[in-house]
Structure formats: structure tokens, C-alpha cells
What does this fold into?
Amino acid sequence: MASRRICSFSVEVAPGPVCDLATVDALAQLALAARRLGLELRLAQAPAELLELIALAGLEQALCGQSGGQPEQREQPRGVEEEGQLRDAPG
It folds into this structure.
């Protein structure tokens, strides 16, 4: 069985007057379309402000090819803990 080779392409992101979540959304959609075609999108020369927004949106791995760190550890859900009866407030 042949291994699937992933081709990557770079998108150069020039600094612009607006760096917002709409830009991050457009890049995420582009990355998704590329992935469906078996391609990998990589950002080149992205401004620090855009990289911060990408990290804030949690899309570092999808758009920058790197993870921000270890996966988050989640607590196990707990049931309702009953400690006693609530009393009516005086008044």
C-alpha cells in the first residue's frame, strides 16, 4: 500500500490595514479546502498580530502547522453534590 504524500503550499500574508477575525476565518476556510484536496496550507511572513489572532481562535495547528503546547486536560464531569437544604433568607 502506497503512503499518501501531502503536498504543501505557502500563502504569503502581507501586512495590511486590517487584521481581524474575518481574515482568520478566510484563511481557515482556505486551509480546509486545501486539506480536502490533499494539500497543506502554510502561512509565510504573517504579521505578529495575525498570528496572535490565530492562536486566540485556537487554529495554530491548522494554519501554522504547530501546536501551542500540550493538549488541554479536562476535568471529569461531576454529579450534583448535595450539601444540605437551603433555607429561606430572613426578611
